[in-house]
Structures are given as C-alpha cells and as structure tokens.
Input
Amino acid sequence: MIRVVVVDDEALVRSGFELILGAASDIQVVAAVDGDVAVDMIRRERPDVVLLDIRMPGRSGLDILADLRHDDPRPVIGILTTFDTDEYIARALHDGASGFLVKDTAPEHLAAMVRTLAAGGVVLSPQVSRTLVDGYTGTPDRDAVRRIALLTDRERDVLSRLPTGESNAEIGRRLHLSGATVKDHVSAILSKLSVSTRLEAALISERARPGRRRT
Output
C-alpha cells in the first residue's frame, strides 16, 4: 500500500485528490491538510509520497520542502502547480522535488503518477516538461552536453530512460539489467552530473538532446 499525504490550501483540491487516489486499491491517502500543519503531519504519518502545492498562503510548498530536506527517511515529494509560479521551480529542484504535476491532471493518470513516484521514478506532467527543460534547470545546453560526455555508454543508456518515469526495475527489464545494477548506475550518474535527484538528471538529459533550444 502506497501511503500519501496531500498538501494544498484549498479544501476542494484536497478532497478531489483524496477521492481520486482513494479509488485505487494500492493507494491510501493518510492525510489531506493545508500548509500550516503539513510538516508535523508528514513527520507523524511517514508517507511514501507527498503531493505538495508549491504556492500557499502562510507556509508555502517551498518552505515545507526546505523543512523536510534533511529528514531521514524523507518521503518522495511531487509538486502540485498551476504553473503560474515558474520562478519557484529552480528552488524546488534544488530542494529535492521528484516531480511536477499540474493540478488538473486527468484522474486516470494521477494514480499512475503516484505509483511512479513511490517506485523512485520521475514524474513530469506533459504540460510542464517543456518549460522545465527550456528554462529552469539552470544548465546551458553546452554544459549539459559536457556533463553527459562524462558518462559511460551503459550509464547513458540508463540516463536515457529516466525522463520516461520508469522505476529502476522497469529500466532494468528494458536494458536486461537487475534493479540493483540500475540503482548503482543512477548513483554514478547523479555524482558525475553533479546533481542530487533523478529529476535533475532527466532534465539535463533532455537539455543535451540535439536540436534543443532555449526559449
């Protein structure tokens, strides 16, 4: 069972996410709260995944993300956004966000995204991936290419799968590797690319692709 906490300042959004996710047999929403009580609730419930609104009055999603940054264990955190808050994305990446979901994500996709996050995968709603790749990784294209050149061929194979959101086990099946071997490759990739999350690595991979231009 995947335990989830939903954090949003709007009760209607919280109840909507709780209703949609609660319909999945393998997902349990253990709390749906606003930002003021979120940190205490997350530390008490120890969820696998937190869906966190990036902008809220009082305690913002960025404040909460920073508070949880050094918790051990720390839940996987997916940022909820309407994407009128682009200026916050770089900070959320730096503080360890594992995915970005728009609030109007189709109900049939939401549970799958939570499963991907829980399995250690990367989640980028299609509506936001273009903006993230073009403007908010803080990495110029030529620098992305230079970093990718540091990787071995097998590490590049693994890196190429990160933007798909696949888990280590799924990547392993595609590349005929064990999940443990994929995990080791991911650790090496993060070190060589000088990033701390799979999401940042995935974005560098996207930025290094031929023909990619910044807007």
Notes: The chain has eleven helices and six strands.
